[in-house]
Prior knowledge:
With 424 residues, the chain is of the alpha+beta class. It is 29% helix and 26% strand. The chain starts with a strand and ends with a helix.
Amino acid sequence: MKVLIVGGGGREHCLAWKIKQSLKVKKIYCAPGNGGTSSFAQNIDVPASDLESLLNFALKEKIDLTVIGPEAPLVEGIVDLFEEKGLKIFGPKEEAAKLEASKVFAKQIMKKYAIPTADFCIFDDPYKAKKFAEKSIPCVVKADGLAQGKGSIICKSREGVEEAVELMMIEKKFGKAGERIVIEEFLEGEEASILAFVDGESYLLLVPSQDHKPVFDNDEGPNTGGMGAYAPAPLVNGKIMVKIKEKIFAPLLKALKKENIFFRGILYAGLMIKNEEPFVLEFNVRFGDPETQAILPKLKTDLVDLMLETIEGKLEKMKLDWDERFCVCVVLASGGYPGKYEKGKKIEGLGKLNSLEDILVFHAGTKKVGNDYLSWGGRVLNVVGLDFDLKRAQEKVYEAIKNIYFEKMHYRKDIACKAFKYLE
């Protein structure tokens, strides 16, 4: 099989690495890929946003399976485009991708079908939004559209609310995405990410993970795309997992059917767990980044088989087989990220990690120039460690990171610390 992976981040390197393990796969292309994927796949110089060129490439090269990493091409309708030409592609169609493309749409579906989520109001007038939010502090202000994981702001003061509404609706920091906003109640609790393969009828939940969105330790600073993750997250015990199935995934699939929306691909529920009850913060329609880098190293089942059975609607006959170890992923970021950052910094010490046991490195924003790897994005590298003991997995990762250097590199030092209280 020939496989095309669309995207160029840490998630896509991880997907390519896992797909390469399938005996069915002979050749992998990444569009555009990164410095890491170039070592075993063929990077092609086509951005994930150029749907027409991606389609032409897939037709010309007779690609057997296309896998979409980021959300934007899904929201733009790449799956519809490929399927019209008879090409196999993994992901939901444009209509189903609205679950991620519009916070308003997702919240309205949840309200209509009684799927647990925070109370909310929708606004397209900044003055009315500010007036309402002042009476609802603390609250969360969210851009309706796609904002690369940065369009959600927790507001604990009147000034915070004013700033968030101005940023989205007047300064238009997120462009069209912030023309409408959702203001919702602030839920106390702890976050978890649950991903599932969904074939329209059946679904298979992956192991629970926990992302770390704020840029600094102790969840300080602005939100990012994600600074690290680990799996499985012991916060989500068996009892909570049953509730997640019964109160969220099963009713959502029924709801989508009633709305005549056919969902096929990965469905990701970002949850808040409060007193052992799950509430939905958001839905995504693709593999999480960096959760994928903490989940796929644990997956023993052939990922290509899983994707093909999902596309064919035959998921119910599949069973997931897991490595029992914990997996911890830490993101190394460029100085200034998630704000302005410089790129083109030479990365030192990567070779030293090749000989380390139970350590994996997934490239995100990197570029290979000659024999050197350069930083080429906000999130640069993902260092991953595995061990039967979570504390040891965490220690392995942070020991490995000591070997890597690039100018102004920064990372969180507390990834997975929240889990320890559940393991005592």
